[in-house]
Amino acid sequence: MLRVAVLVLAQSVQAFVPSKLRPARALVTRHGRKPGVSDPNDLAAFVASAGSNLVVVDARNLDFEKEPGDEKAHELAPIATPPADTSYRPRAVNVPYQRDSESMDLSLIPAEWVEAAGGLENMPVITHCGGGGRGQKAKDYLLANGFKNVLNGGGPADAECWAKFGDK
Asked: Residues near 67 by Cβ (< 8 Å), separated by ≥ 6?
């Protein structure tokens, strides 16, 4: 039986799990990160192993009336809008997570990127929004729709994570 001790300190929850039994994804918030946001070291390793096949799915919405918080995150890091701006974030694509329908328009992901990676199940994807909440919803949506290799990177509000993939 796995025993997990949870310690609550101010607004941070930390789980202490034997090192050999680390969970595949974060189950609790650490250091102010939202649940599901990957550890920066895991993101760095994922980016390195993905190489040129990495796809960054920006789940933020350019309709700031619909998602007011995205305007502030857009000021920190502009929302990915390829193909026009591939010099800024060449492997990023804006595929907004729609809260009202709990869906995403996956046709916005370039078919040539999917093909080059060997299909949806092989394509390495990092999702993000401003801080990780919708990034996790986007990750869950992708996993439910045939993707198998997906991490939630949080977003520009988490500078430590953003530094690992924000220029991709």
From this structure: 60, 61, 96, 99
Closest CA relative to residue 110, chosen from 128, 125, 132 = 125
Separation in Å, CA 70 to CA 5, 7, 52, 103, 166: 35, 32, 28, 17, 16
Residue-wise pLDDT for 110-129, tens only, equals: 999 999 999 999 999 999 99
DSSP tally for the chain: helices H, then strands E = 5, 6
**What is the DSSP code (8-state) at residue 49?**
H
Beta strands 150-152; 92-94: pairing state: unpaired
Query: CA-CA distance, 42 to 152, in Å (whole number)?
Result: 10
Per the CB < 8 A criterion, the answer to whether 127 and 3 are in contact is no
Question: Taking CA 131 as the corner, what is the angle to CA 130 and CA 137, rounded to the nearest 5 degrees?
Answer: 90
Cis peptide before 83 (omega within 30 of 0): yes
pTM: 0.78
95/58 Cα distance (integer angstroms): 6
Phi-psi region of 55 (alpha: psi -120 to 50; beta: other; left: phi over 0): beta
Report the alpha-carbon distance of residue 128 to residue 133 in Å, rounded. Answer: 8
